[in-house]
Amino acid sequence: MRGFFGIGVLSRYLLRQNLYLMGICLSVGTCIYLLSDIFDRLDDFIRAGLGAETILLYFVVKTPMIVSQLMPAVFLLAMVLQFGILARSRELLALRAGGVSFVWFIRFFIVYALFWSCGQLMFSQFLGVFGDYEAHRIWKEDVHKRQIDELTIKNLWFRDGPFIVTAETALPGKSRAEGITVYEFTTDNQELIRILTAKKALVDDQGWGLLDVHELDTRTFVSVNRVSQFLSVRQNLKAYAAVEVKGDKARLPLLELSKAIKKLEESGSNVEILQTVWHSKLSYAFSIVIMALIALALVTWSENLYANVGLALVLIFTQYGIHVMGVTAGEKGVLPPFAAAWLGNAVMGSLAGVRLAWETVPGLQGAVKRGVAGVMPDQGDHRAT
After folding, report:
1. Does residue 71 share a domain with residue 9?
2. pLDDT over threshold 90, residue 18
3. Alpha-helical regions (H) of 138-286
4. pTM of the predicted model, to two decimals?
């Protein structure tokens, strides 16, 4: 019998059981995370003299991002618990005896995990990003009394047409920069024409107004001092503020991050860090599928509930550690952004996939054993010789 949307009785039973276990795991995990955060930050809120409403608002708006961060781990634990319960109650044995192959479970949970991955991505990029930004604003403005408009960017540089511009300090909120050096090239970028240095620059959509300017013509080596000079640099500081204002670059939603990458790429800036962050958002959401593969692989190794839960916790930290290591390598330019962001999923998914193939592909174990036997020398013949 199949119900709505063509979902059979077994599928509905597994869905209800999994959703129930996910709700329990997610509730416990979120409460533990919030309690640790409360104990860590409560003293700062009290010293800032904030009321209970502001404190409560901070933790309420932060909850969606916490949920999205915990979702892959919660999904793995829920599946491990689910299969442990099925095995303990002999339901898993009965299903196999009734003709339900383990390949069916693999297909079902991969499709199920894909739906959760898409939902986690949308949830984190809308409600999660909004809540995280609002929590960050409360922390910076109300707790540390630091206005976002007072943002300061150190050692900024970019390229705009024939100009390469560096600034020791940039203040996007005030449309001002200090410690300016401008290198101007010919239109074919083959020859350096002049070098401009200025103490300050006022920035608007029309260009940069340099103050207290020193100009050196590199062709004649003639230097000139001016009180001010207008430069047709169209690079506004708002693009950089969009990245920096929200603190950690990971707080930007995918669409806004894509626009920031495009603007900075057009200006000649290095965008490897932002590209790595962009890919990592996708890879983290679809790590739920990898967690499904890991849970299924654990079941083929052991049906002991306690052993699998303990091993699942170890694998959660392992996968997250590889993910962070890959992202760090991408941000430092050691790996391409795409490969760096998907490293954790690729490693853990491959290991889980090999284990599942070993247990489910007909004849694979026999073929491997025959291949190994063919490579290994015959010990009896060797001794006889």
Report:
1. yes
2. yes
3. 238-244, 254-266, 272-285
4. 0.72
